[in-house]
Amino acid sequence: MHAYRSHTCAALNTSHVGQTIRLSGWVHRVRDHGGVLFIDLRDHYGITQVLADSDSPAFAEIEKVRAEWVIQIEGRVKARDAALINPKLPTGEIEVYATGLTVLGEAAELPLPVFGETEYPEETRLTYRFLDLRREGMHRNMMLRSNVVRSLRNRMWDMGFNEFQTPIITASSPEGARDFLVPSRLHPGKFYALPQAPQQFKQLIMVAGFDRYFQIAPCFRDEDPRADRSPTDFYQLDIEMSFVEQEDVFAVVQPVISGLFEEFAPHKSVSKDWPRIAYRDSLLWYGSDKPDLRNPIKMQVVSEHFAGSGFAVFAKLLEQEGTQIRAIPAPKGGSRKFCDRMNAFAQQQGLPGMGYIFWREAEDGSGMEAAGPLAKNIGPERTEAIRQQLGLGMGDAAFFLGGKPEAFEAVAGRARNVIGEELGLTEKDTFRFAWIVDFPMYEKTDDGKIDFSHNPFSMPQGGMEALQGNPLDVYAYQYDLACNGYELISGGIRNHKPEIMFKAFELAGYPNSEVEKRFGGMVKAFKYGAPPHGGCAAGIDRIVMLLADTTNIREVIMFPMNQRAEDLLMNAPSEPTNEQLRELRLRVLPKEA
After folding, report:
1. Is the alpha carbon torsion for 533, 436, 272, 537 positive or negative?
2. b/e burial code for range 274-292 (CB count within 10 A of at least 16 → b)
3. In this predicted model, what pLDDT tens digit does every residue of 455-473 receive, in sequence order?
């Protein structure tokens, strides 16, 4: 018999009754039933019930054990009485009568319990992450993650892709976030960077002629933390293909992602229809470039109904250039109580409020009437035109926001989500996907300059000719995949021609010399025959978060940072020693007062 175990804690069943076995694991919990002691013994695979009565030679030792001790049990497998069978456990038809016990590792008093799913402060959970990971829910999440990664690998291999690894220490590159810099000991005063993504390397792999590449790639970005984003590092399924157009990438990705969700969320519906939605339309209809299509509400522009109307606030707004009035339809939301609640929501989000109209039975019984302050100000003719445009009726409502879209769009999107949830319009147990396409190549920064709005390596639609006009009118072959309000994938068809690449960066304020300095390897490679190519990257952490039905990405990362980008378990970041600083020829400036 093996020194530690003959079976795992999930392996025993009625076919083993009468056998002498050996188990090792953690004491999940101990129960004293008046002279009979029960231990739920847990390992990676499951739980087995162990018992000992006063006749057992192990009884005295079992009395001493406590939760989370690591022990080895020797005993005999018994069938449980029919009334005591636990159908929730694979081992629920048997139990082990203990004849011997060896303590392999004692446990101190626990800072948080492993048994049960009691909520504990995140600081405690991350400081003692090794204990937190022993909990059933966390263990299940980590195994889900492992199986998702394995499935993704298998699916990519099956589609003819090859897995290659790219460097972790590389050069700094503008990818839309801050780099983590690594000082060089051999080259004092110079720095490497941890890659925000393998972007340049995977393009070079295409130039090298490998055609179909993938990698489960670690990426590093010095970002502000959010519930759905790690502040330091994350993993992505990185994909690149040669001789492809946008539709070719979509055709590869859809069966991989839909198959993955069908495999790991069989109890939920996975949409087969993945619509293409232009970025500008997504912002207009949903107030977001990652819309939740489980919610059927689509916002609409209703400016014409308020221009020159009796509602002075909106009428005056529309006299200013670049302003709009948008409506959020709210089917079944036609009560003053609900409308007031949504108006208060807008105020909580930093807006003055949100106008509304709702339609109800007229008090005199003459039919339907429009109610609310806006209805009184703009009159029945305009109100009726709004109702017809939005396709609303009795018992429905509409909410209105005005101004420059960039000032209210995000709040409008959040309001749409709240309305969908509160009115029961948003589907449950469903994953709905959409490709967001036609992203603008450039944007205007706060100081009025032109900069890349997304990935600088995307091919502009129209090529060099498109770059001769207004940069803000240029669209890129850039696309995202949205699912249930989250961005899961981002990608693009790449700019593989040096002359177009130089011109694209020139419009964003990068002279040719700077492009050569920062992307010299890629520019050099493109001069020696680069194929048209494109690809994308899927966020593994976020995919697992959705499949695990949680909204906090730290619930699906083995050892995450906290909200302040600190590793409370390993005490990182930490202060360097003077010797380390001298070796790197660095000096740490004192904190500013």
Report:
1. positive
2. beebebeebbbbbbbbbbb
3. 888 999 999 999 999 999 9
